[in-house]
Specification:
This protein has one domain (5-248): TIM Barrel (Alpha-Beta Barrel). The protein has helices spanning 16-30, 47-54, 80-86, 96-101, 106-118, 131-135, 139-150, 156-160, 180-197, 200-205, 216-223, 240-248; strands spanning 5-9, 37-41, 60-63, 90-93, 122-127, 163-166, 207-211, 230-233. The chain has an eight-stranded parallel β-barrel with strand order 1-2-3-4-5-6-7-8, surrounded by six helices. Helix content is 44%, strand content 15%. The protein is globular and about 45 Å long. The chain is an alpha/beta fold. The chain binds phosphoenolpyruvate. Phosphoenolpyruvate binds next to strand 8.
Length: 254
């Protein structure tokens, strides 16, 4: 049985003060939640202060990006050991906004996954098609290419530690959500790909989140699908009441 995992991607929102306010409210409402894994991913500038609030509660801490080398002359970047030292446990890798605006590719995603695993960070690896790809019937080809490139040279044991996030790019921040059937058929495809590449044991272990305009009203239907194991939430994670409602709407499922 895979445990549902709901992660909030705060993107480039919230100063440290605002982040502490939000996470303090979340700790009050979700801080002893054990039936669902809950993770918040604030901007890098707020990680340390958010961690101070999260001490001794069940909410996990994630970062939104990192570089693959441990240290070096890479102005503006942060590394896995740096975020690990703050107490970060999860790392979002290859979000479509990073692919679209910062030139990330499946090859750089692969390097980041390996660096994260080396430092015992849990990667949340994002994949998903853009609208033109879906409309021209290329969704499965795109997903397959992203999986092959992003997970190249990973062992079964390494892959079991990943979380995958299927995020159709046309659904991110647009208010358009994939229907439960649309999302489920891609999640099923991903799990079948994992079975072919490794085996059923690996495929059954990997949690696959859905992301793209998840809100309290559509959570139960999406999370009720057999291959959907959680959500990566953008906009609705920026307010404690909507994020808490998403988490609570997962209780009683699975
Ligand atoms: C995201 O940022 O990963 C995301 C899914 O955003 P939103 O929920 O706002 O669509």
């Amino acid at each position: 049985m895979r445990k549902i995992i709901i992660a909030g991607n705060w993107k480039m929102y919230k100063t440290s003060v605002e982040a502490v306010e939000l996470v303090t409210e979340l700790k009050r409402t979700l801080g002893d939640m054990n039936d669902v894994d809950v993770v918040v991913c604030p901007p890098a500038t707020a990680l340390a202060e958010v961690k101070d609030v999260l001490n001794e509660c069940s909410i996990g801490l994630g970062a939104q990006n990192m570089y693959w080398d441990d240290f070096g002359a890479f102005t503006g970047e942060v590394s896995a050991p740096m975020i690990k030292a703050i107490g970060v446990e999860y790392i979002i890798i290859g979000h479509s906004e990073r692919r679209q605006f910062f030139g990330e590719t499946d090859a750089t995603v692969n390097k980041k996954i390996k660096a994260a695993l080396k430092h015992q960070l849990i990667p949340i690896v994002c994949i998903g098609e853009v609208l033109a790809e879906r409309e021209s019937g290329k969704t499965f080809d795109v997903i397959k290419t992203q999986l092959e490139g992003s997970l190249v040279n990973l062992t079964a044991a390494e892959t079991e530690n990943l979380i995958l996030a299927y995020e159709p790019v046309w659904a991110i921040g647009t208010g358009k959500t994939a229907t439960p059937d649309q999302a489920q058929e891609v999640h099923k495809f991903i799990r079948e790909w994992l079975t072919k590449k490794f085996d059923a044991a690996v495929a059954n272990k990997v949690r696959i989140q859905y992301g793209g305009s998840v809100k309290p009203e559509n959570t139960a239907e999406l999370m009720g699908q057999p291959d959907i194991d959680g959500a990566l939430v953008g906009g609705a994670s920026l307010k404690s009441d909507s994020f808490a409602a998403i988490v609570k709407n997962c209780l009683a499922l699975k």
